Amino acid sequence: MSVAENVLPPFHLAFPVHSLAAARAFYGELLGCPEGRSSEAWIDFNFYGHQIVAHLAPDEVGHRHTSKVDGDAVPVRHFGVVLSMAQWQAAADKLQQAGIEFIIEPHVRFKGEVGEQATMFFLDPSGNALEFKAFADMSSLFAK
C-alpha cells in the first residue's frame, strides 16, 4: 500500500496484564475502548480502530527501561496512538480529571522543530506504558 492512498490498515498488539478486570476498567471504561471478543485469559479492545489484546500474564507486566528523547526519560517498551490535537487535548483533560499519574506530563516536544508534537506518557494498571501524541501538521509524522 502506498502512503498516497492515505488509508492505514489497523495494527494488532498483544500485551500482558496482571488483571483482566483492571484492564476492562482502564481500557474499556476510562479510555473508552469498546470490548470485542474475550475469554478467561484475554480481552480484545478497539483502540482507536486498532486491535489490542490484553493477555493475562502477571509475570510479564510493566516497563523496565527508558531512553532519552528531547530531555524526557521515555519508556522503551510502550505503545499508543496518534490523535488530532483536539482529541489529544480531550484525552489529556480526561486523564488529568481521572487522577492518572503521568510518567511524562502532557506537553509539546520538539518545539519549533520538524516533528513538533504534543505528547504524554502514562501507565495502565499493569505498568504498561502508553503514549498519546498529536501533530498540528500530520504530514510531519515521519518528517526528518
Automatic annotation (TrEMBL):
Q: Report whether Zinc shows up as a keyword of the record.
A: no
Q: Indicate what this protein is called per its UniProt record.
A: Glyoxalase/bleomycin resistance protein/dioxygenase
UniProt xrefs under Gene3D superfamilies: 2,3-Dihydroxybiphenyl 1,2-Dioxygenase, domain 1 (3.10.180.10)
- GO MF assignments: dioxygenase activity
Q: Which InterPro entries match?
A: Glyas_Bleomycin-R_OHBP_Dase, Glyas_Fos-R_dOase_dom, VOC_core
Q: Does the keyword Nucleotidyltransferase apply?
A: no
Source organism superkingdom: Bacteria
Domain called VOC: residue spans: 9-135
UniProt keyword annotations, A-Z: Dioxygenase, Oxidoreductase
